[in-house]
Amino acid sequence: MAQPSLIATIIVPMRNEENYIGKCLDSILGNAFPPDQLEIIVVDGESTDKSRELVEERAVRFPYIRLLSNKKRSVPPGLNMAILQARGRYIIRMDAHTEYPSNYISDCVEELERTRAEVVGGRCITEPRAHTTVARAVALVTQNPVCVGNSAFRIGNVGRYVDTVPFGAFRREIFDRIGLFREDLERHQDFELNARVRKAGGRIYLSSRIHCTYYNAPSFSKFMRQAYMNGIYMGRAWQRYPVSFCWRHAAPVTFVCGMLLLALLGQFIPAFMWVLAAAAAVYILAITAAGLLIARRHGLRYLCLAPVLICSYHLVYGGSTCVGLLNEPFVRWWPFAATSKTRVTDCVQDSESSSS
């Protein structure tokens, strides 16, 4: 791992992000942070669009931007590659689908120093990725507690220590203590890493000073695909790394399995059908209330759409979590996943081969 010689290293993984990487980098470059104390590492997963060109254009004007190639394509290997080459005392992980205010970097650094936490982050404000009613509804429901539970960074419960933050600003030494991102988790790797931080006695702080704008799925089909993939990797993460288990994430699979169990038991004991009906009624009331709240604030067109999106998300998320749990024992995983703890030194050879 490179020796720290700068204050901050920004890490941005990307693949085929020509519609967003330019805006993302421009928002980072617009930060009022000393350029001589900053480096930006963009890790490209072999993009086939103009993403690399957009980064290279900005690197000509801003030499502290570096572009690395990630032959494995997925996010965790790219993050690890960049961390191993980072020269910053603090490492700030950013996302290509996100834009950042002009004080984002300085606020992250100041909050790390003020709180002495190992990781800090802020609220993730979701915006639609397309100019459609469905895209807007997706952005709204993913900030509603009925849909996402008590996820503090989504619902705005800031100014406290939490179990995870979006993306995250890290003290570089935490990676020497707990290891790097799990490369066998194409999703859910952030939460799993933060779970290891907490297990090691580290603290994660959600600051009221920090926020970013994230552009979510633009259509119903992509929102459902997002839910499906998140559920698959949630189940796999629980199997491989039990430290990542969280009751908030277990709510959808508990709901789906519970309803199926009640329906099955109801075939033999009629009383369970009444329990099933009562549970379904409570759930319908909850998602309807969420729809009413969203419609009152943003328009009647969301009155029916929001409950449908929330219910679909929960069903797909819960069902795919079951698939991830059941499928895990029958799949061959990378040798990287075999150890319970991935140290920085264990990943050097793998990351270097990825960048060659």
Describe it for me?
This protein is α/β, with parallel strands linked by helices and 356 residues long. It is built from 14 helices and nine strands. The protein has a domain of 213 residues: Spore Coat Polysaccharide Biosynthesis Protein SpsA, Chain A (Alpha-Beta Complex). Helices cover 52% and strands 15% of the residues. Strands 1, 2, 3, 4, 5, 6, 7, 8 and 9 form a nine-stranded mixed β-sheet that branches. It is globular, with a radius of gyration of 21 Å. The C terminus is likely disordered.
How many β strands by DSSP? 9
Q: Can you tell me the residue ranges where pLDDT is under 50 for at least 5 consecutive residues?
A: 331-356
Count of helix runs: 14
Estimated structural class:
alpha/beta
The CATH architecture designation of the domain at 6-218 is Alpha-Beta Complex
